[in-house]
């Protein structure tokens, strides 16, 4: 149960300000919110079963301390990714689809989630925690986060500032990543920690650098 709630909370946080949450807001402005959420749920369920299965498989191959240490690094990287934020490309989405809105939402979210930090977060969690708990918890956490964004968007009638939300979400990722690195890397040598700090610093530079 702890794995379920951890996955639920981490995915709820990871989705805040993510591009797929922005997609949910955009699509809910065009279509019925229940149809949008149902499409998100089904698409997320499919994507996360693959990412959780991949994480579980990797976790079986590697020693537990290395799994925790590497998962911690990945969560800190996701924190930088969250602080940078995401945006939508291609302008506003059309409200006149050629297919049923459910399938439009399903396919849009499926593509958006491939390689996204929410998918990679699920993979990282599944290297350490049980597959089913991570899969279900991550799916429900993401859907609830999107549902909350849609509800707030409907109430406000416009997209609200997300800078504070992104900062809080980033801090959560940093804290969880640091704890995971400490838990797995207490017996590691200085050279391993130095390499990890270098990777984290490069990731921070990559995600937070100003565009030229």
Assign an overall shape: globular
Mean pLDDT across all amino acids:
80
Specify the helix fraction band: over 70%
Runs in which pLDDT lies below 50 for 5 or more consecutive residues are 90-94
Give me the Rg, rounded: 18 Å
Q: Ends: how far apart?
A: 46 Å
Helix count equals: 9
Strand content: under 5%
Structure description:
The longest helix is centred in the first third of the chain and has 29 residues, at 33-61. The protein has one domain. Helix 1 (2-15) runs parallel beside helix 7 (131-156), helix 2 (19-30) crosses helix 7 (131-156) and helix 4 (64-84) packs antiparallel against helix 8 (163-185). It has nine helices and no strands. With 212 residues, the protein is mainly alpha-helical. Residues 90-94 have low confidence and may be disordered. It has helices spanning 2-15, 19-30, 33-61, 64-84, 101-113, 117-126, 131-156, 163-185, 190-208.
Protein traits:
212 residues, mainly alpha
Short synopsis of the structure:
The chain is an all-alpha fold and 212 residues long. Helices cover 79% and strands 0% of the residues. It has one domain.
Secondary structure layout:
Layout: H1 2-15, H2 19-30, H3 33-61, H4 64-84, H5 101-113, H6 117-126, H7 131-156, H8 163-185, H9 190-208
Helix pairs in contact: 1-6, 1-7, 2-3, 2-5, 2-7, 3-5, 3-6, 3-7, 4-6, 4-8, 4-9, 6-7
